[in-house]
Amino acid sequence: DAKTTQPTSMDCAEGRAANLPCNHSTISGNEYVYWYRQIHSQGPQYIIHGLKNNETNEMASLIITEDRKSSTLILPHATLRDTAVYYCIVRVLSFQGTGANNLFFGTGTRLTVIP
Amino acid sequence: ETGVTQTPRHLVMGMTNKKSLKCEQHLGHNAMYWYKQSAKKPLELMFVYSLEERVENNSVPSRFSPECPNSSHLFLHLHTLQPEDSALYLCASSHRTGGSLGSGANVLTFGAGSRLTVL
């Protein structure tokens, strides 16, 4: 149980903003929201994470609703290289006392950027 | 280049062969992970090392044997594999966090993966 719900696939026109939604209605107060993406046959790439406030970095923006039950990843100007599977992750398993954590990847959203 | 390097990128082996996958990170991280990604399945955690000590073995068959000689290197030794073991094997690393759920964000950096085919 990945604790998140994402659409299976989305299309976005090149140059337009890509808005990828994620529902995480059972999130607890101290759980972060992480976004990763995986381009075909490569390792997942970290994009951004947040707890309560909206976040922005050079790759994307993360908008988290006030009740924290959903979030949206925004790629402001999608390019063909942004075609990938995007994972929204909430569930984290901590190995107590070790400082290591496992992120549970679900099936994600396959984003296709169309020329 | 993410700072986590995996070799080889592609490996084809027979069921009786012995081979090893190597992972090296230059990020100063002290936790390292092996994940398996089979076709059309989510990533599955296999092993976790924190400060070179194995802290998780996620019910992985003994034909997979991990080794972590130091905090920068991680190996996955393979022997007598089965065709269903064919998959993308991913190494990741991270800083150790506070250790309790949600006490700090935990960002994993992944390598590009080793694509394994067992004939």
Question: Major sheet of chain A: size, sense and barrel closure?
Answer: 5 strands, mixed
Class from secondary-structure proportions of chain A: mainly beta
Number of strands of chain B: 11
Share of helix of chain A, binned? under 10%
Strand arrangement, major sheet of chain A: 1-11-8-3-4
What is the overall pLDDT average of chain B? 88
The general outline of chain A is globular
End-to-end Cα distance of chain A, whole Å, is 35 Å
Strand content of chain A is over 45%
Distance between the termini of chain B: 30 Å
Largest sheet of chain B: 7 strands, mixed
Number of helices of chain A: 0
- Mean pLDDT across all residues of chain A, rounded? 91
Structural class of chain B: mainly beta
Please mark out the parts of chain B with pLDDT under 50 across 5 or more consecutive residues, or reply none.
99-103
Name the chain pair with the biggest interface and residue counts per chain.
A-B, 30 and 40 residues
- The share of residues in helices of chain B is under 10%
Radius of gyration of chain A using CA atoms only:
14 Å
Counting DSSP E segments of at least 2 residues, the number of strands of chain A comes to: 11
Shape of chain B: globular
In oligomeric terms, what are we looking at?
heterodimer
Characterize the structure shown.
- The complex is a heterodimer of chains A (115) and B (119).
- Chain A is an all-beta fold and 115 residues long.
- Helices cover 0% and strands 48% of the residues of chain A.
- In chain A, strands 1-11-8-3-4 form a five-stranded mixed sheet, with no helix packed on it. A four-stranded antiparallel sheet of chain A has the order 2-7-6-5, with no helix packed on it.
- Chain A starts with 8 loop residues before the first strand and ends with a strand.
- The model of chain A has no long low-confidence stretch (mean pLDDT 91).
- Chain B is an all-beta fold and 119 residues long.
- In chain B, β7 and β8 form a beta hairpin.
- Chain B is globular, with a radius of gyration of 14 Å.
- In chain B, 33% of the residues are buried.
- The A-B interface holds A 2, 28-32, 34, 41-46, 49, 51, 92, 94-107 and B 2, 4, 6, 30-31, 33, 42-43, 45, 48-51, 53, 55-56, 88, 90-92, 94-103, 105-113, 115.
